[in-house]
Amino acid sequence: MIEQDLQQKQKLDNGAAKIADFLAKTTDKLGSNNKPVKSNITDNDSAKMTTSKGTIQGYNGIAITDDKHQIILHS
Fold it and tell me: H or E segment at 2?
């Protein structure tokens, strides 16, 4: 049982490392004047998102969860 838990932890750690690598390699989008495109001057991390109710200013969230123990491991 401990071996299964260690394998599950290793699998989740590998997934978190892949996400961290992806985020580290992601660069800002450049506009026509070679300046980063900003979707919101006061909060550059938010973005325009299309929903069933129209376009809103919002965020995308990513979380890594453990199905067996039903806990959030990384967000």
Answer: helix 2-25
pTM greater than the 0.70 cutoff: no
Could you state, in order of their start, the residue ranges of all structural domains in the chain?
2-74
Close Cβ partners of 51 (under 8 Å, ≥ 6 residues apart): none
From residue 65, give the alpha-carbon distance in Å to each of 11, 61, 72. 12, 13, 4
User: What would the pLDDT profile of 50-71 be if each residue is shown by its tens digit?
Assistant: 889 888 888 878 888 888 888 8
Distance CA 35, CA 4 (A): 49
Per-residue pLDDT tens over the stretch 14-51: 988 888 887 677 666 676 777 776 656 567 677 778 88
The pair of structure tokens assigned to 66 is 């453990």
